[in-house]
């Protein structure tokens, strides 16, 4: 996976300028099984594996989440008033309307997060150089499309766009504002070095992110974090400006410097909350991958990723949270990882049975 979310065949040759020899060594076999619509599938779609998730539209989820967080904002405002925070600030010469400030911060905090969500597919394609497969040129690209089609059907979502991006690292990501309007992309390194079963498990993990609505959920969580970072940074800025530096005419330079510094510090600390939430979603995506591709295949893919931990991960930060692999960090740095350690993920799947 940041927040987050590699070609086979002739498209790969045109993109990265390498020989086609490696394509011949990648053993993908297509079993021509037809579904009810006459499309080829790799495996028979005898049963569907729906990912448990709330049965509401994406826009309804956004509205419900915004309503919930509006309630949080109102409760925070009432709590500050009950504890006399407004009076304390006024007594120290800080004339600040906390209700208006909260609304202001909520509008801008959520606006940035939601705009990023709605343009996430475009940004992902631009930042990674992902090439979308519209018409497969080789049997390998055909296999990739058919596998994603099968997994999407089993997960109960519409077929996402499928792409491959030029990277040596073994990685993949999913992004998009809606589970039925998503993008799933895999790296060239993943396709070159992983077995078909391992690639399918990685794709199943990414389809799990899409089916679980993780892109929307994390965007909304980020909006909440943005709101309160902006809110408390401006309170701190006003307090320093009025109480310590005794500015009387409007907001002095101390306000702006302090606010910027406070936003940086609070934003850094708050990112640990977002990353904690992201790690929880990774376990859910692994579980979804196990449901769709099989537990053994999902464990095998994670073990294969573990063997490549020395390979640098160059995924853009905005997509790291929705990749299959975010690299390796230890100690306190682990608090800011978007993914749990691979050992923990493998152990969780083994306990699942």
TrEMBL record:
Cofactor-binding details, from the entry: Binds 1 zinc ion per subunit.
GO cellular component: plasma membrane
Cofactor: Zn(2+)
EC number assigned by the record: 3.4.24.-
One BP annotation, GO: proteolysis
Span of domain Peptidase M48: 140-352
GO molecular function terms noted in the UniProt entry: metalloendopeptidase activity; zinc ion binding
InterPro entries assigned to the protein according to its UniProt record, in alphabetical order: HtpX_protease (IPR050083), Pept_M48_protease_HtpX (IPR022919), Peptidase_M48 (IPR001915)
Family designation: Belongs to the peptidase M48B family.
Source superkingdom: Bacteria
UniProt subcellular location: Cell membrane
Positions that bind Zn(2+): 205, 209, 282
Topology class, membrane: Multi-pass membrane protein
Active site (record annotation): 206
Protein source organism: Pseudomonas syringae pv. coriandricola
Keywords linked to the UniProt accession: Cell membrane, Hydrolase, Membrane, Metal-binding, Metalloprotease, Protease, Stress response, Transmembrane, Transmembrane helix, Zinc
Main location, first listed in the record: membrane
Protein name (Swiss-Prot/TrEMBL): Protease HtpX
TM ranges: 62-89, 101-119, 215-233, 253-277
Enzyme class at the top of the EC tree: hydrolase
NCBIfam families (alphabetical): PRK05457.1 (NF003965)
